[in-house]
Design goal:
The chain is built from eight helices and seven strands. It is α/β, with parallel strands linked by helices and 213 residues long. It has one domain: Rossmann fold.
Amino acid sequence: MLRPAAVASLAACGVVLLAAASPRPSDELDARVTRFLEERRGTWRDMNVPDADGRALHEIVLTHRYTRALEIGTSTGHSGIWIAWALAKTGGMLVTIDIDEGRHREAVANFKAAGLARVIDARLADAHELVPQLTGPFDFVFIDADKGWYTNYAKAILPRLRVGGCLTAHNVYVGRRWRSETGDFYDYVAGLPFLETTIINGGLSVSYKRRAS
């Protein structure tokens, strides 16, 4: 460590001393979340999304700078971690709902381990009852719960989705596979004139709200 006199002498000679940069909080969080996801890679079961869909959700939130997110169907937290990681960068918050106590408890532990608990409001509740009660507004919604209720969830939450916001849903197929479970949902959102709907990654429905309903 240089003495003050030595520092003054170097400065007088025109030598600029640069202080070592401290890691930014965002860099530390990125490292922590990345490490957590790498350690858990290939172990996510119990109806969690694959990595590719998690990354897609993360990019949607980050690209559009969404801040008020809702997830219907937490499972054990894989998708929630990807969404909340983006929200931590946009200054946002995630409300996530699951009815199963065991999955909820495991998800909460995973959120803490990933360093994201501060931006997640994890609720143990029946989404059939809770979702219609939520006041919003939201700018990002992800549905990954009971497939036969997707359309009901969409009808309940779309009035609370901001213009410019995005409604996403998992395991949505327009072909023959699982058509009976999610086909009605796709037909519903694709038929709404104020939504622009596409399918990415082979089964992730993405609907942007272009104007008021």
